[in-house]
Design brief:
71% helix; mainly alpha; single chain; Tetracycline Repressor, domain 2; 9 helices
């Protein structure tokens, strides 16, 4: 990926930031209409309402653009997840509220949801690497909240990642069934799974 595809949004001028956001929208719309494989840079800039030159000022390839879109949208959702934290609540409540906030952030744009959960996989190794980074952040969040609340390591990183994988598969299922409006149900399922996992590791009475 080229350097421009990962530029810090906080350093962009208002005009450049607007162009970048329009390219993200153009990418999501083009991919929704034609799929990633059949979408071209011409499709993206037409949907975005910018020039091809503007595209290349930000990205070297359409793959760079899709990964940047994925990372930007995921960052927004992860920020919503973290901002929902309330250490005065039980970890069960914190995790479920955080997952609802995360999924709500994604659910607001069904067009983007499909791009993030389905089309990113069409990039092969780079797309999987980007997805894994986001999954790792969510798994780390679960471990941090639950283990800190319990005062010991009751949730192993591998089990947290297994839960995140389940969340992704449930979200994919809802997308395939055109039931994105039911995405919040995934948060309750993730909460139940975490309670079962943590409960299985708790010490049992003799």
């Amino acid at each position: 990926m080229d350097d421009t595809s990962t530029m810090d949004a906080s350093t962009l001028t208002p005009e450049t930031a607007e162009h970048r956001q329009r390219l993200f929208i153009g990418m999501a719309q083009a991919v929704t209409a034609k799929g990633y494989g059949d979408s071209t840079i011409a499709d993206i800039v037409r949907e975005a309402g910018v020039s091809r030159r503007t595209f290349y000022e930000h990205f070297a390839t359409k793959a760079d653009c899709l990964i940047a879109l994925y990372e930007s949208a995921s960052r927004n959702a992860l920020n919503a997840l973290r901002s929902s934290l309330d250490p005065h609540r039980s970890w069960q409540t914190q995790v479920e509220v955080a997952m609802v906030a995360y999924l709500n952030c994604l659910q607001r744009n069904p067009l983007l949801m499909r791009t993030l959960f389905v089309e990113i996989l069409g990039l092969g190794a780079p797309g999987l690497a980007a997805r894994r980074r986001v999954n790792q952040e969510i798994a780390d969040f679960m471990c941090k909240v639950i283990n800190a609340s319990e005062g010991r390591d009751v949730l192993a990183p591998e089990m947290a990642m297994a839960v995140v994988g389940g969340v992704n598969e449930l979200a994919l299922q809802l997308i395939e069934q055109d039931r994105v409006q039911n995405l919040q149900l995934v948060a309750a399922t993730a909460g139940a799974l975490l309670r079962a996992v943590v409960g299985a590791t708790a010490p049992h009475p003799p």
